[in-house]
Amino acid sequence: MVKDKMKEIKNKKLAGMTMAASILIMGITLSGCLGEEGTILRTTGATFPQYQIQKWIDVYHESHPDVKIEYEGGGSGHGQDAFLNGLTQIGRSDPPVKEDTWNKFLGTGDQPLQFPEVVGAVVISYNVPGVSNLNLSKDAIVGIFIGDIEYWDNSIIKQSNPGVNLPHNKIIVIHRSDSSGTTSIFTTYLSVISDEWANKVGAGKTVEWPADSMGRGLAGKGNPGVVATLKQTDYSICYTELSFAIEENLPTASIENKNGEYIKPTDQTIQAAVAGVKSYIPSPTEGYTENLEQLLNAPGNHSYPIVAFTHLLVWQNNGCRHYSSDEAAAIKDFLEWVLTEGQKPENMAPGYVGLPSEVTQIGLNAVNSINDGC
Amino acid sequence: MSVSNFRKAKEKAFLIAVGITTLIAILPLFHIIATVLMNGLPPIVAKGPVFITGTLSEGGIGPAIVGTFMLTFLSSLIGLPIAFLVGVYAYEYPKSAIGRLTKALLQIMLEFPTILVGVFVMDIIAIPMGTYSAFAGAFALAIILMPYVAVYTHEAMRQIPFTYREASFGLGLTKFKAVFRVLVPVSKRGIMTGVLIGMAKVAGETAPLLFTTGGLYQSYPHSISQPVGAIPLLIYTLVQSPSASDHAMAWGASLVLLLIFLAVFIPIRRSLKEVKL
Amino acid sequence: MAQKISEKVSEILGKIKTCMGFQKKGNKVDSFKLITSPAVLFVLALFAGMLIVYFYNAMPAFNREGLSVYLKDVWRAVENPSEEYYGLASAIWGSIYTSMIAILVALPLSIAYSIFVVDYAPKRIKNTLIITSDVMAGLPTIIYGIWGAFVLVPFLKDYVMTPLHRYLSFIPIFSYPPITGFSYFSAGILLGIMVTPFASAIIREAYQMTPFAYREAAFSVGMTRYEATKVMLGYIKPAMFSGVILAFGRAIGETVAVSLVIGNTFNLSANLFAPGYTISSLIANQFGNAFIYSHMLPVLYAAGLALFFIGLLVNSAGLYLLRRWEKNVSI
Fold first, then answer.
1. CB-CB: which of B222, B246, B264 is closest to A35?
2. Low-confidence residues of chain B, pLDDT below 70?
3. Which residue in A5, A172, A314, A365 has its CB near the most CB atoms, within 10 A?
4. Which chains contact C through at least 3 pairs of Cβ atoms less than 8 Å apart?
């Protein structure tokens, strides 16, 4: 009897203490005792550059400890939506904004600015036991993903890979299940190099993969999902971002580029591609005119065909409509840093490549035009 | 003779079957705890106390922990009273149209995808306010909390044998006194179970916070009308990154979440004394 | 004079309050209704608000595609707005299928658990079991999701799905080759594990509260514990209904955990081992980018409404069954 009562008291005490602790924490927080002063910036949207943006935030924080930049994901669509509604200061979008969305931006009475901040690549990765080097011609790539090529030892694949022991196994095609900028870039690339793909499947953030209806398709959620599926599935092939392939030590195929060369995705080959297409990047005030197709399959002997640009969205802050003086100044400083210091190799995250100076200049001009005199 | 032996055998078989099934029902929890411990302890140990008190740039999840407490507390403040009263009302007037309607609606609200609740709150609170906020997040969580607490309250009170009602009214108590002074305390355990389960559930929610709170991990939250972070939300973001250190941090954060949850939940649950009938 | 006026005023107020049901005839205020009604009204208003917002946002999808947005299995999200076309059939199927599997798993587990806890467990184990179950109910779903994806799925794939497929693939539901393990089956099992505690809590409390008199009566006619238990279970049928409906609702609304184990593929098949989609995980996956397309957002809201309709159906069925049961039994 007494024991029970003592136990009850002990439990009630424990419960009471935990409740008290919780309320204490709440109280301290709300009274701001733990808080520090400083500017808080927020960037929202595309998850493709997540790794790179977080690295930039960390490095910038070391030299600017009183500026706190919050990273938020949610996808390019959410980034554009949040940017439009003023829920975030710097939007991130993989694909360039469409015209009617751009008009909605303009409808707030301010001028939106869009420019690329980093470049990545979409790579083709594979899991074929015994094969560590693979060349894929344009026909091979299209054939595999459209479902016409069923086995690894198909003659089209063999043609570009003399001396490689390709097994007679069915090719399992792994793609994204969720809406994805990576898919969008990859399918746009396929549409560019193949009319058959453009007509039969088309480009988009999600598409109907022909391999699914043949029972040879698998979907993974997010790049981590795709990569995990690839690792578990022998004789499979997938497309993913370079940063994931590097982090997970996956083999990447050498892809036939516009000039007929087989190119592996490396810093140099990506930069060569960017140099080949930089003239197609529009002025920041006309971001909606950017055409994804023009940036793919770049000319040049050393260009990697599937490069992926990702963009930042900021307001010009006309009439101080969106940012306060402090915020605008902080944004300008941060973005300037991103486009100059941030592009240096030591500040690049694996899988991302810095922009050439002609391209960063586009962004810098835009950032300079942000109004911070409120 | 064989009939009674057969019945005895059924009795034994039943006991064994029930015992094993119960074991299967609770085994996953221990496995989950073990897995989270195995994967989450190394990163925390490697970082040290900074993991708990530091901001994200310092390698810690401190702001997220505070955010989770804030959101759970706020959403309970908003949701518990309302849900409790609704549950009691549905119990008192089971035949009335409104009573039945409310109970049915609550069960339906239980099934709403949590992400759409978040979108709804974003539309009616975050966008008009012009900013993400703890309040918006708490409101979304409250909407998710309410059906659980209301349904459990209703169920708990429904189990009270009719004799207690008869006795209370026989003594001349008003409906208010009868319900709140007699019947509710009798079903206290069932109701508190619902409250705890509801609160614990919303503390671990991710989807409703996606478009309402915004996330705050570089500094500690100051006010409820500003963005705030939460541990599940942070885990969700970290899991999508390619970097292995982010994944390790996600497991570590999961362990922290688990420990907080257990530390708060278990003592309170144990202190609820059983009501003997 | 002033007194007469104030009397008149309180008389009028009293009449208004009686009209609204707050007050019985005379001067006594029904404080019960006074306190609970605002809460009920708030919930009703909230619910109405949500429905209105969802309907309003889903309207464009209905206008453009009509009911085929629910009946077709297609998902064409292309750059050209006029070619966009969406159908939710496989997501709807996936939600229902996985939730049914979840209930099939959860019901026996929670009933067995409740019986064991109330009837057989010695006191110390009893408390531990109860707390364990409640802990499982509150465990953050993302932890379930991560555990499900990294532990449960490989386990199920290697020890359950592959053998079943190897020996029993002539049975249609086992005929899909389990390559990654992400499937309706895995999602159903994970959901079953997740919703069992919810059903258990209700059934356990109900079973505990059954008056001892009934059990005594059963023993007095010579029943074994097993047979007495069967009788008692019949007594708590309403709680079992509630438990099942709660579990179903919980399962069908689950987003994060399911999206990590179901494979997220558009697939309309009853094959247990095939990957699929549920409405919740579809919305979660596609919402972040829906803004970019002209016609996807309304479809996602329509998907949410589908869940509402399903919920309505299930709850009505539950209420009907409950009403029939209550006619025959009085407590």
1. B222
2. 1-2, 242, 271-277
3. A314
4. A, B
Residues of A in contact with B57 (CB under 8 A): 57-58, 61
Where residue B217 sits, what CATH number does that domain have? 1.10.3720.10
Check whether C325 has a pLDDT greater than 80.
no
- B38 falls within a domain: no
For C257-307, the pLDDT digits (tens) are 888 888 777 777 778 888 888 998 888 878 777 787 878 888 888 888 888
* Residue B8 is assigned to a structural domain of this protein: no
Number of domains in chain B: 1
Cα separation, B268 vs C329, in Å, equals: 37
pLDDT in tens, A9-47: 666 666 666 666 666 665 655 554 444 567 889 999 888
Structure tokens at C95: 């939600």
All partners of chain B with 3 or more CB pairs under 8 angstroms: A, C
Domain encompassing residue B259: 48-271
Give the pTM: 0.78
B-facing residues of C in 61-100 (CB < 8 A) are none
Domains of chain C listed by start with CATH number: 2-70 (no CATH), 83-330 (1.10.3720.10)
Residues from chain A that touch B127, judged by Cβ atoms under 8 A, are 85, 87
Query: What does the alpha-carbon distance between residue B247 and residue C146 come to, in Å, rounded to a whole number?
Result: 11
pLDDT at A16: 63
